[in-house]
Amino acid sequence: RYAADLYGQGTVKLDAAKEALASERFDDAEKFASEAEAKFKEARNSAMTLAKAQKRKVELSQQQLYSEAFASIGRAELLLQMARSFNVQKFAPQKLKDARLKLDKAKKAISERKYDEARNIALEAEKSALAAQKLAQIRWREEQISLSGEELEALAKDAVFKAKTSMDENPDLKKLSPDLYRAADDLLSQAEKAIEERDYQSALLFGSQAVALIENAQRRWTELGKKESEMISKLSKIDRFQVLRDSKGILVRIGGDLFAPGGSNINSKYRGSLRKLAEVLKGYPQFTVLIEGHTDSIGEAEDNLKLSIARAVKFRDFLVKQGVEGSRLIPIGYGESRPIASNINEAGRRKNRRIDLIILTRSSL
Description:
single chain; CATH 3.30.1330.60; five-stranded mixed sheet; 12 helices; 5 strands; 8% strand
């Protein structure tokens, strides 16, 4: 498949050797046989090189699909949050249901490492969420028609004031949920522009939506903050783990000699700690968990990528055996591409041979 021309040349040489041998031209037979052997060896080496390159290409493609699917899921969730500010449950219940079903299917596909399928379904979920939002907006506008001009103006200006106040009172939102913050800021800008143009219905629409987004995010962040603190407290008591807050949630870093150089088997002395980790994860089944495999820079990059994936999968399998639901766990490998220390010395390489486990508490904020 990967070196057909070289294999064909080797076959020609082998046939020539057979013919020479049949004619008792032994010197020629030996020569052709040697040349055939060299061609077959060259074909084998070429095929292995090309196959590795193709596999590397496929693995990189899978990681790109994963990133696209994950981003699309986040956008769909944000659109649904925006739609809720227009009481989408009342105005567009079927479209809301359709979007949620597609979103759940996309999450299931990504947990099963069907990244291409997950990306496509997530894009459909985005479209359904946007349709739900637009229909809810239309129905919402229809309800505002009965308001007088003065009432509408007062409500619009009040909504803009509340939106500004909410953003000023929640400065951490920009760091905790940048996508949602940008969406709220854009809505506020549109509301202020509509006020200037005396389009009070649009101003009320955008201002109310900005307020709803911020208040919903703040309420959810308060709830999630409590859960994060609980988990961090429990995880910090487990030996051999480094526990940090991450922009996506909670980062549990496990390095050192978790894996031997070049290996994917988990060091037996970590098993007790990993069992405790599994118990914590089982206590919070609502959160998806990324399992990122990383390596040092010793060896070829494609081999390290393959090794990092094997490590992430092995880690996932261990947690599943301890009773953690497999659909929540997403293994992914980054090879040597994301070092946290220098690879010049063994101390740095030990840090880079690691698993970064990310509990996605903030993925839907």
